[in-house]
Structures are given as C-alpha cells and as structure tokens.
Amino acid sequence: MKLSPRYDAPSLLSIDGRPDDQAIVVSRQRKRMETLLDAFGEDEWKAPSRCDGWTVQDVVAHLVGVNAFWEASVNAGLKLNVPGIRH
Question: Are 69 and 62 in contact (CB under 8 A)?
C-alpha cells in the first residue's frame, strides 16, 4: 500500500480531541512496560518471542527503533505548513 504523497485527500487517520489527550494513558503504559522490562534477567531477554526467530530483546529493540522513527516523523511533520493539517 502506498500512502504518500497524499496531500489532496482526507486524512487516513484522525484522532478526536487535543494531541495531548493521550499523554497520560501512553505515559502509564510506558511506565508499566518499563517496570516489566526492568525485572528481566538474562534468560528473559534471550527467550524466544512470539515473532519467529526473534528474542524478547529483538522485539524490544524493534519497538525502541520504531518509536524513534515515529517521533522523528511527527516532529518533521509538525514543522511542515500543509493546508488542512491542524497542529
């Protein structure tokens, strides 16, 4: 599926409310995950995950990378001045 460039059509994703509405929920989820991962020993990190061929450490590293990508993407998008996009 090719999603870009797509500037002349309605948004594919729309979230009602202010952008900071989800901050508390996301922060709580992140803290729970941090607490869980903090308790992991070497065996838990090396354990196979539900993703074929990936350890738990591989999955967590992937999540960290994806999070960094989306943060950079959102920040870059906020710097654009695209008609019809509210900041």
Answer: no
